[in-house]
Design goal:
binds coproporphyrinogen III; single chain; alpha/beta; TIM Barrel; 343 residues
Length: 343
């Protein structure tokens, strides 16, 4: 696996070409995904290793991406912790949201990993099919983001329920976040043991916190999860959406790479964070709804901003959107391969 461009970029080693993958690359913008999805619901796909492996491999076959993110969801490890999860038109929902201190699980149940073993089996199947130099990327949700789903019961604009719980039940909130950190840490370790060559924590909603609150409710638990997986010796990536105001806190994260959303110019992100971390990003996913010329121009703008510095993994600034035309993804792949930048 040491030959992988993606892993070498995570380690900030010199490489001959910029590696590329897309967050949410296995998904509804692909007709071959929609064909599988037409016959199975989303959770069944996650729980059936043959289906999960198939849709994980689809974007690799079509576009030759440099990493294969395992098909699963950040909500999956919440079920063995005792929460009923379902997926509807507007995303995930929790059957009985967590609203009281007594709703916080007392511990990680015995057999936690066995109950989500389908994820590990999916990784093993994907590993068998992939060229050796394409790593499987394991992932999990970061504790704050998962806690917000548990408490809100789904997505939210204001995170009022989450913050109400945190303010009124701080001790229970910290117990919940600690439990989630240990659970996702163990889930990442098990994914590495199954063959994942790198892992990513998604803190999609931590951007709603001020820096001061991020340091109380999010950062310590990102650190705790990252420490659990440290011994596995694979690159650890943290993606935080809407995080430009959190960079001084993110600079302390125990990780090898940080995901940068599209709002910050890549050159600026490298100036602020590039000494310690490889950086991943950051084409605006909505650019892929534009014209091919706009896609090429924006790719060149992102790569020029990087300016040939070591430790860049090309990606979107958030997940690819379902209406994205395939031709624009092909243009993205070609534009990254063709870029002959400065430096
Ligand atoms: O290709 C990949 O990146 C691998 C699979 C993956 C999914 N979800 C599959 C999925 C990954 C890495 C995730 C992570 C995830 N899930 C995040 C973090 C990334 C982010 O976007 O910020 C979050 C917040 C979730 C929770 C979640 N799951 C939401 C908000 C939704 C609904 C929105 C949507 O895109 O439908 C899901 C459902 C989901 N997860 C789908 C897929 C392919 C769509 C399900 C379907 O086919 O109907």
């Amino acid at each position: 696996m040491s030959e992988s461009l993606f892993i070498r970029a995570c380690r900030k080693e010199p490489i001959e070409r910029t590696p590329l993958w897309m967050m949410r690359q296995a998904g509804r913008y692909l007709p071959e995904y929609r064909a599988v999805r037409a016959k199975s619901d989303f959770l069944t796909m996650c729980r059936t290793p043959e289906l999960a492996a198939e849709v994980t491999l689809q974007p690799i076959r079509r576009f030759g991406f440099d990493a294969a993110v395992i098909f699963s969801d950040i909500m999956i490890p919440l079920e063995p912790l005792g929460f009923g999860v379902s997926f509807g038109e507007r995303g995930p929902s929790i059957a009985h949201p967590l609203r009281q201190a007594s709703d916080v699980p007392t511990g990680i149940p015995d057999g936690f990993e066995e109950q989500v073993a389908f994820v590990y089996r999916s990784i093993e199947l994907v590993r068998q099919e992939l060229p050796e130099d394409v790593p499987v990327l394991g992932f999990a949700g970061a504790p704050f983001t998962l806690a917000s789903y548990l408490i809100e019961g789904g997505g939210s604009k204001s995170y009022a329920e989450t913050k109400t719980f945190f303010y009124h039940q701080p001790e229970a909130a910290h117990r919940l976040l600690g439990l989630l950190a240990d659970a996702v840490g163990r889930h990442l370790v098990a994914q590495v043991n199954a063959g994942a060559g790198a892992v990513q924590l998604f803190d999609s909603w931590a951007g709603v916190l001020s820096e001061q609150e991020y340091r109380v409710w999010a950062l310590p638990y990102v650190q705790r999860a990252m420490r659990v997986v440290a011994d596995a010796q694979v690159p650890r990536i943290l993606f935080t959406l809407n995080a430009a105001h959190l960079y001084s806190a993110l600079a302390e994260v125990e990780a090898e790479a940080l995901g940068i959303d599209w709002r910050t110019p890549m050159g600026q992100a490298f100036d602020l964070l590039g000494d310690r971390f490889a950086l991943q990003g950051n084409l605006d996913p909505t650019v892929l709804l534009g014209t091919p010329d706009q896609v090429s121009a924006e790719v060149r703008r992102v790569l020029s901003g990087v300016g040939g510095r070591r430790g860049h993994i090309m990606n979107l600034g958030h997940g690819v959107l379902p209406p994205t035309p395939i031709a624009n993804v092909e243009t993205l792949v070609r534009a990254v391969a063709d870029f002959k930048g400065e430096g």
